[in-house]
Amino acid sequence: MVEEVNETRCVQTVSKDCDGLNIHQSTKQAYIFCPVGGIFDMSYPNSKLRRGRVQGGGMLCPTITCAPSSLFVIDSIEYEEVDNKKVVKKVSLRRLTETELFKLMGLNSQETELLVNSDISKNHLMKLAGNSIVVNVLEEIFRTLIIEKNTESGQGDALF
Asked: Of 47-51, 86-90, 117-121, which has the strongest mean pLDDT?
């Protein structure tokens, strides 16, 4: 289900060069480009100091927090011809779904499906994703700690 969103306070302009949006950011340029399909962070839309709204050209997800409803995907931009000029007719933004958030956090499809189909509310699921640590990152931290401990004791990295 695509949810229509009317919050555009931090969307500065629609880019004339490419299919995407110029998102307000506190830099010399005053904006950063995010393409259609890209993800950006709309938290604190009236901030004069906010930076890092778009990560990796919109292809990396900004930090998921307990208020993940501030993360948006640019679904589409519709144009129309007016006096031989391309004019924006409609910009479609949507919030990341709880399924997308859990997959970004490193859960597999089965685990994500179990959580989404449980009796836990959508709001609580989104807070849960924001309070989590990425599974792959945690595994690597433990792997590194175990390897370092085994190396110090002379056992090498026999566990892996």
From this structure: 117-121
pLDDT digit string, tens, across residues 87-108 = 888 889 999 889 999 998 899 9
Angstrom distances, CA of residue 88 to CA of 19, 81, 97: 10, 9, 26
The full set of domain ranges for the chain reads 1-96, 102-160
Chain CA centroid to CA 64, Å? 7
Q: From CA 20, how far away is CA 6, in angstroms rounded?
A: 16
Burial of 53 (0-12, 13-18, 19+ CB in 10 A): buried
pTM reported for the whole predicted model: 0.70
